[in-house]
Specification:
The protein has 475 residues and is mostly helical. The chain contains 17 helices and no strands. The chain is 77% helix and 0% strand. It is found in: Cell membrane.
């Protein structure tokens, strides 16, 4: 670990704000979009139940580029890459607002994702190198605060903009923030590079990325693109083959993208697979709930956005309780019970219909927000807590990839289920029925993930050289 670089007092004050604003742009964009999907579908002449590609394109692009973000910053310099990331995100936002077709919008979201994939990892890397390790947790906690505000503000602001202006403004509001961010980054972002040239595992990156893309397209093909089952099976087989080729190769080279040795730590292996499968339910909710409220229950965009606030409030309320509860129950008991509870709460959304009182709906959403937040916090920490200090950076990078990938797969799976349960020219009652069946399936899948956490040790994992390592505090 290289020593922190020398910063002047003004830069030391402003740098955390700069990274926090970049994080806020990402979290706001991720939550503001979901409420606007039905309005986008109307303008682009698409079925609102098949708009998941707009969400998946961004998440999958971010997941693909996260493994390369650190190497790119070390190779070309943190200031240049951070400014480039803001420019790409802003230009992608402009192209999203100018899109006149579904395919144009998806392509613009990919460009936006290129910027989003670099902003936070590069910002976090600069903070890690620019400040003493003793200050890292405090500064990262400060940077994470906008990540809590974004999901609280996003759905309401998105619904308000759609109802009183147009959906284009959910992307246009990124432009002035992007301009200010570029100016601030050019002035205050340190231009750090890696101490030595490191060879990047390009072939491993291609194999790993191809596997993620092929599997996601296969699931998306069942929903929006209506591919034949034969083509879907071929894509799934090709994705599995690429993933197998990656891990076989990673086991025999010196510096793979992600080392198989990480999985020798049981808590890491369980945490990674738990994140991948347990998030399929939680990751699908921000996509499914605004559609349920607007398409099946007839809410206005503003009403749907306001109704999503309890999800964010519940998540914020449980943050301070997470550590005491984990300390009391232990990871194994907490994750098994919490996963089953989360699955039950998601499945119970199938009971919602046009007669459900609004207050009951809001309480339901609030409970889901609390349980979901507890799930994410416990899964993130159990994944990293047992790793050695030397493996923590690589493990954290892989966790970030899996988080984005699992949310992308969750949206793709939910879209495929929703498309499969929706009949042509469906009436309102049939559309509601499709949502109810989808929630039952998604909840059931979430509950099955509890079996993974049975594999945890009875005692909580720790490592001999354990220190207060930075854990991803963005959720």
């Amino acid at each position: 670990m290289q020593p922190p670089v020398a910063l002047d007092a003004r830069t030391a004050r402003i740098l955390p704000w700069l990274v926090a604003i970049a994080f806020f742009m990402q979290t706001l964009d991720g939550t503001i979009l979901n409420t606007a999907l039905p309005a986008m579908a109307r303008d682009l002449a698409e079925n609102p139940l098949r708009m998941q590609g707009v969400v998946i394109a961004y998440m999958l692009t971010v997941a693909l580029l996260i493994p390369a973000s650190g190497w790119i910053a070390d190779r070309f310099g943190s200031r240049r890459i951070f400014v480039t990331a803001i420019v790409l995100f802003s230009v992608g936002s402009l192209f999203c607002a100018l899109s006149t077709s579904f395919n144009q919008l998806v392509a613009s979201r990919v460009l936006q994702g290129l910027g989003g994939a670099l902003m936070l990892p590069v910002g976090r890397l600069v903070v890690l190198r620019a400040f003493p390790r003793s200050d890292f947790v405090r500064i990262m906690a400060f940077i994470a605060l906008p990540g809590l505000v974004g999901p609280l503000l996003g759905p309401t602001l998105g619904g308000w903009l759609v109802e009183y202006a147009s959906w284009h403004w959910i992307f246009l509001i990124n432009l002035p923030v992007g301009v200010i961010g570029c100016i601030a980054a050019l002035r205050f972002m340190p231009d750090l590079k890696g101490p030595e040239r490191v060879r990047f595992d390009t072939l491993g990156f291609v194999l790993f990325g191809a596997a993620m893309v092929l599997v996601t397209i296969a699931l998306e093909g069942l929903g929006h693109m209506h591919m034949s089952h034969a083509r879907v099976m071929l894509l799934l087989f090709a994705g599995a083959a690429c993933m197998a080729a990656y891990w076989l190769r990673a086991g025999r080279i010196d510096a793979p993208l992600f080392s198989p040795k990480l999985f020798h730590t049981r808590s890491f292996a369980v945490g990674i697979f738990g994140n991948l499968f347990a998030r399929l339910g939680g990751g699908a909710l921000p996509f499914l709930l605004p559609l349920l409220l607007q398409v099946a229950l007839g809410y206005s965009p503003a009403q749907a956005g306001m109704s999503m606030i309890p999800l964010a409030l519940g998540a914020m309320a449980v943050k301070s309780l997470a550590k005491p509860i984990i300390d009391r129950l232990g990871y194994r008991r907490l994750l098994i019970g919490n996963t089953l509870l989360l699955g039950c709460l998601i499945a119970s959304l199938a009971t919602i219909d046009t007669q459900t009182p609004t207050w009951l709906l809001l309480v339901h959403f609030g409970l889901i927000g609390m349980v979901n937040s507890m799930q994410f916090t416990a899964m993130n920490t159990v994944t990293l807590v047992g790793l050695s200090h030397a493996d923590a950076s690589s493990g954290n990078s892989m966790l970030s990839v899996v988080v984005q990938l699992s949310m992308s797969l969750g949206v793709a799976t939910a879209g495929a289920l929703l498309g499969g349960f929706t009949v042509a020219d469906a009436q309102d009652s049939e559309v509601l029925r499709a949502f109810q069946l989808t929630f039952l399936c998604v909840g059931g899948m979430a509950m099955l993930a509890a079996a993974l956490f049975l594999q945890l040790e009875q005692r909580d994992p720790v490592h001999d050289d354990d220190v207060r390592r930075p854990v991803d505090v963005s959720e």
